[in-house]
Amino acid sequence: MFAVCLCAGCGHDSDDPVTPPTPPGPGPEPDPDPVAIELYTSLESRAAVNGFDGTEISIAAGTSSGHITEVWNGVATGSRIALIPVQYYPADSSAIYLRGFYPRTESLVNGIADYTLTGKEDLLYAGLSSGSLGTPFTPTAEALTFHHLLAQLNVSLDTGEDFQGTYRLKHLSIEGSAGSASLDVLNGTVQFGEDPIRLEVYNVEDFSGEVVKAGSTLSLGYILIQPKAALTLNLVLARDENPEHDIVLANQPVEFEGGSSETGLSYKLSIKLPNDIGKEDPEDPDNPDNPDNPDNPDNPDNPDPDDPDNPDNPDDPDDPVTPDNPDKVELTLYATITAWSDVSMGDIDIPVH
């Protein structure tokens, strides 16, 4: 006799329904799409200007307010900065901290940007701004506001209607401004180099310069200078093609409205030439070296310069003060504050408003 054991559900011919497998649980949430950073900017100074036009700038970025972790490239146009390449907010909503500076440089050493100054480049800086996914940068919140770190000096050469003679401008330069600067990007301070340089405003080698005559005004452009620097001016006027006849004025001190040039201000330096600047011309009848000049000591009509009764004798008690060189030409150079205007520095254009 055989015993048969049947197991329910084991046979292939069972009529019981088949139970479907349990579906897997939900997986991890997909990462949100990254959000690109959009930056906004303006350019300000106490000379009342703003505006960028395709200006290449640098952005120092960090994950905390006191550190810089990388430097981004940006192009500022109007009130916007395009980051190249595009940068994104941290996905964890943590903040990023930014500062801006110009001219562009992609390398900082201990947070310092070093520059060589030639008088034609400005230094700009925008202080700390921060943003995140929850509090992004906007045109009104945390925009990068740039400020000028140098001063501007607009130079012109002017003569009055009674100016005597006609000359050619040969050389004009300003000395005393630093030739280098180091910008601390973390705090926006500038350390200028100790060696002053000569900044050429105008220079030609021959008798082909601009004509200087009565009632003329020559606008010679601008230079950008170290604020508070003690400046002197050098000027050369050519009478003719013989350099030995040039009129040379050297080390003429420049004074500024307010006492010294200030950061972010623009100044106008109008050089007003004296009417008789060419009186040392050997053929000028007013030249004391001209034998026909009555002041020439070789003229027999002149009194003896050693005569104690001669009022020109420095030992004459009636003439206690005699200048060492009464024929030396000196200029009064005074720079006045004006609007920062008509600036064109490579790719930066700052219009007047």
Characterization of the model:
By secondary structure, the protein is mainly β. Helix content is 0%, strand content 39%. The chain is built from no helices and 21 strands. Strands 9, 10, 13, 14, 15, 16, 17, 18 and 19 form a 9-stranded mixed beta sheet that branches. A 7-stranded mixed beta barrel has the order 1-4-3-2-5-7-8. The model is unreliable at 1-11, 285-291, 316-327 and 342-353 (pLDDT under 50).
- Gross morphology is elongated
Radius of gyration: 37 Å
- Kindly estimate the percentage of residues that lie in beta strands according to DSSP: 35-45%
- Which parts are unreliable, with pLDDT below 50 for 5 consecutive residues or more? 1-11, 285-291, 316-327, 342-353
Largest sheet: 9 strands, mixed
- Count of DSSP strands: 21
- The ordered string of helix (H) and strand (E) elements is EEEEEEEEEEEEEEEEEEEEE
Taking the alpha carbons of the first and last residues, their distance comes to 116 Å
Structural class: mainly beta
Give a nutshell description of this structure.
0% of the residues lie in helices and 39% in strands. It has 353 residues and is mostly beta strands. Residues 1-11, 285-291, 316-327 and 342-353 have low confidence and may be disordered.
